[in-house]
Amino acid sequence: MADETEHFMSLGLPDPSDSFDAWSDEGYAVIKQKSDDSRKETGKRLKRTFSQVEACKLIGRSESFLKGKGLNDEVSPSNLPRYTLKRINELRDQTGTRYKRPSNVEPLVLAMAKLKGGVGNSTICVHLAHYFALHGLKVLIADFDLQCSASTIASGMNPDEAYEVEETIYSVLRDDPTRMKNIIKLTYFENVHLAPCNSLMQSLEFELAEQMSKPDAEWPQDENGEPISVYDRALIALDSVKAHYDVILIDCPPALGTITLNALTAADGMINTIRPSPLDRTSFATFNASLASMYEAIPNSLRYYRILINQMVRSRAAEKEDAIVRHIYGNYVVRNNIVDSSEIQGAPEDMSTLYDRMKPVKSVQAYKRALESMDLVFGEIFQDLKTLWAMEAEAYDNG
Ligand SMILES: Nc1ncnc2c1ncn2[C@@H]1O[C@H](COP(=O)(O)OP(=O)(O)O)[C@@H](O)[C@H]1O
Ligand SMILES: [Mg+2]
């Protein structure tokens, strides 16, 4: 048998193992260029601003509400007033139009969990965070996914270059969950904070297994000096910061190991994303079986659960799949779907979301269609949360 070198040579290519390092550097250089571009001359990525009409709509007032009041933060090159989300939230607070989670109900910790990679989980996670923040909520993205896509999109930076190990969720879950507040970063999007991870996360699963085999005296300890089980790290970490947010979104890895169990132990809500394909549906059935045994093993129950269909296309095959999923999972499936769109696909490349970018990658029509489908899906979820919180607040008031 030919050795590996000869094998590659025979296909006219050199052994790729000599190139992996250089490819990694080149890949990072492209990300760095993108993030430098988005910062332009200011050294800092600018926050999105809104036109007067958009601002009035977000505040929940008629289009003339802001006219002539001079409350804008800046003007556009064509001398039109522009408003930041910070200002819009202040005006919402002043006019009483900002949605407020009832003070006697708990924030929601939503695990975006899946078995299969590439279903759009991380993309949706950051878009949902931006949608919530646009509508007045305070959001934390906790990135538990070793692919770090949510960290990349939400921060607009390469997390391997941007964060030291002790600034990541990896060190919090491995070494000290009580340090969670120290790793949270502001992002370019108002009221969206990020607990980032980077590629070091790849070894966490293995390292937690190793810790488990050691005496619990060697595990990280909580504030009372008690050892924290490897399954409770996220629970302790997120509980310590939860009060600052309305929603915490956990971007879970595509696997059902200790990291996902941590997420499910900490979460009291879950959204599962699937695409309209028989393969996704089959893997989702497997995932359901695993969830069944996981929920037997962990003590918490869910306050909120939804299945979200992503990358819907106009084809008979996709429509058939959509119908099957809705038949099996009934009203747990979000009524609207997120469309398959090159505009959404462009978001990670651009290290932003449709809510941040404001303009199409290629086509205005496609951008509008993608945004509309996201608005419908996320609008349903937001309405669900409002209903849930109202019900919980009422139950609490009634004792
Ligand atoms: N609705 C969509 N339309 C087109 N491309 C999408 C859509 N949602 C996600 N993608 C693309 O699919 C790929 C996988 O998405 P990602 O969010 O990384 O998935 P996951 O987190 O499930 O692995 C990315 O290239 C992303 O841009
Ligand atoms: Mg992902």
UniProtKB/TrEMBL annotation:
Ranges that cross the membrane: none
Documented EC number(s): 3.6.-.-
UniProt xrefs under Pfam families: AAA_31
Listed Gene3D superfamilies: P-loop containing nucleotide triphosphate hydrolases
Residue span(s) of domain AAA: 109-281
The keyword Hydrolase is assigned to this record: yes
Source taxon at top rank: Bacteria
Matching SUPFAM superfamilies: P-loop containing nucleoside triphosphate hydrolases
Molecular function GO labels: hydrolase activity
Keywords assigned by UniProt, alphabetized: Hydrolase, Plasmid
InterPro entries reported in the protein's UniProt record: AAA_dom, DNA_Partitioning_ATPase, P-loop_NTPase
Keyword hit for Hydrolase: yes
Protein name in the entry: Sporulation initiation inhibitor protein Soj
